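Collaborator request, handled under Task 6.
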Amino acid sequence: MRIVNLTEDTKKNILEDLLKRSPNHYGEYEKTVSDIVNDVMVNGDKAVFSYTKRFDKWDVDASNVRVSSEEIKNAYTQIDAKLVEVIREAAENIRTFHEKQLRESWIVPKEDGTILGQKITPIERAGCYAPGGKAYYPSSVLMNIIPAKVAGVEKIVLCTPAGNDGSVHPVTLVAADIAGVDEIYKIGGAQAIAAMAYGTESVPKVDKITGPGNIFVALAKKAVFGYVGIDSVAGPSEILVIADETANPRYVAADLLSQAEHDELASAILITTSKELAEKVSEQVDIFTKELSRTEIIEKSLENYGYILVAESMEEAIAAANEIASEHLEILTKDPYQIMTKIKNAGAIFMGEYSSEPLGDYFAGPNHILPTNGTARFFSPLNVDDFTKKTSIISYSKEALEKVHDKIEYFANQEQLTAHANSIRVRFE
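Structure tokens returned to the collaborator:
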């Protein structure tokens, strides 16, 4: 990996490079996605089935687009019992963590007859997306469905592509079943997002769509936002490690590569105050890269978006980390808790040498669907709040309104909204 000194110029250049990976720069695909989305909106099942046959190469229709209970039952017999137990344990950890996020409605009455409050209601229908085909990600299935289930969503739908034989990978089906899904549909890509957003003869319309996917899925979510809610338009994966001279270079290198193997656009950055550590990590990265299975992807990722930055001080390293606002942030220092208190922007923070990023991906419990491309400055991980709505409650007695009606009328008149003022005034004529 390249080693450079952390300066204002290098930081600016890195930030510019990272932003180029944003879905906002996928303009060349936008018309294709827009055409698919509009076709599904107008033609429903006909369009969805046509695109599925074209892209996924199997003969889908209304009779087989939905996964049957028999297919789910059979899926349990096709995978190792040990994997089923691991998925169950991970699901329980995720459920326990997200239950802590539940909020309650509240009402505050006052003696003057004023009642104010907030009512929290789960959305009615959630649509989750899981990549499929050759790849399968049961961990993402759990991370999408369980928060919705904990929130109390009435109906949870999962869309995931099928193979050319019309089957969904059994691990995906088992994970979805354990998480508590209600319906699973064998469709993927932009057409699946559009189907959930607008509804078709076979696929129900949902209120919010969550989950990761490729460029076409990301752009489709962006296109349907407004018709439905979405979690975010996710970009490629990224990791940033803050380390000092006490860090184990072998651990640091392994953790950087855990994200570099995702995608040629993935970003892996180390910021350290130790030049010696920087050199050792670079050497270890080269060793690991030759041993790991996704060598070509890792090499391209590191060539494009891999950096080892040597900072003059830990304060400088922390400032840079806050500006980059990475999806995953590991702190491998003598006192990681002290550093953590100064981090303002990160999707998830992993502290200490035994808290590597894959722990969060699979098992610990916090959600691994995280803000990318610097959006941790204003976005949060997927959570229970994403599947609830907050409604304000307002009730005034005549006596309570009488005390303030002239102020409200004055305020409304200042905005030249005389009908607003009249709505209050007629009650005291």
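The cover message to the collaborator said: "The first helix runs from residue 8 to 19. The mean pLDDT is 93. Please let us know whether this matches your experimental observations."
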